[in-house]
Design goal:
The protein is an alpha+beta fold and 247 residues long. The chain contains 5 helices and 12 strands. The N and C termini lie far apart (44 Å). The structure holds biotin. Biotin binds at residues 16-18, 41, 44-47, 50, 52, 61-63, 105, 115-117, 133-135.
């Protein structure tokens, strides 16, 4: 695995660090392992086509660029697990114990502290590039109507964003060995899964609300939920865990 963070590109304002990374990749102008960091994103993107809101200068908004990964398309969920575990390790350096809300949100208690947007490109059967976009709340205290938290909100202490970045890079570096140790990677991921084996309320793609229990995640990364005694498999657009409206 290449050295992550050997090169760091610091931007004051950008539309989205993921967009910036994709452009540099398409132009062949970025080295493997480069980390792109922005004080402010004017069009930060989230999962499910949402907008990622982050107060300028307060949080970590970053994209890690990996090229020619030794991973096939069918193994790409490994990148998600690796990223989630690396953010969890990063938070531990600040004495915060996070959980992974499938597939790759990080929660502290019932509040979101980090979201990720991982965008992979495929060549043949291999992942030719992966842009791991991470929005980690560091010093922001006011989240308007969002149920969110930050490192500062948890610890009541301001933290330099660069300290969090260093810790994040260390986490990715340490956990890169797990990419080749699938069973361990999966076990660590499942052990940290938010609301696993706890009855929860979900919204399905058709708008129906159901009660179910997360039991597992498949090798391809689908969520396995037991609903009315039947184990059903879902991908991201098919199910939403309703964290703020639990039974
Ligand atoms: C989500 O929870 O919906 C995912 C949020 C991902 C946000 C990060 S911030 C850095 C990178 N650039 C983006 O435009 N999005 C990701």
């Amino acid at each position: 695995m290449t050295e992550i963070g050997k090169q760091i590109l610091r931007l004051s304002t950008v539309d989205s660090t993921n967009n910036y990374a994709a452009k540099l990749i398409s132009e062949n102008k970025i080295a493997n392992g480069t980390v792109i960091l922005a004080d402010e994103q004017v069009n930060g993107r989230g999962q499910r086509m949402t907008h990622w809101q982050s107060e300028a200068g307060m949080n970590l908004t970053t994209s890690i660029v990996l090229l020619d990964l030794p991973i096939t398309v069918s193994e790409q969920f490994r990148i998600t697990m690796w990223s989630a575990l690396s953010v969890i390790d990063c938070l531990r350096n600040f004495s915060i114990e996070g959980k992974i809300k499938w597939p790759n949100d990080i929660y502290v208690g019932d509040k979101k502290v980090c979201g990720m947007l991982i965008e992979n490109a495929v060549r043949g059967s291999k992942i030719s590039s992966s842009v791991i976009g991470i929005g980690l709340n560091v010093n922001q205290l006011d989240f308007l109507d969002l149920i969110a938290t930050s490192i500062r909100a948890e610890n009541d202490q301001f933290v330099p964003v660069d300290d969090v970045l260093s810790s994040l890079i260390s986490g990715f570096t340490k956990n890169s060995a797990l990419l080749d140790a699938y069973e361990k990677l999966k076990e660590n991921y499942l052990n940290l899964l938010y609301r696993r084996n706890v009855e929860s309320l979900f919204e399905l793609e058709n708008g129906e609300c159901v009660t179910g229990t997360i039991e597992h995640v498949s090798d391809s990364g689908r969520l396995e939920v037991r609903i009315n005694a039947e184990l059903r498999c879902f991908d991201l657009k098919e199910i939403k865990l309703l964290t703020d409206n639990r039974p």
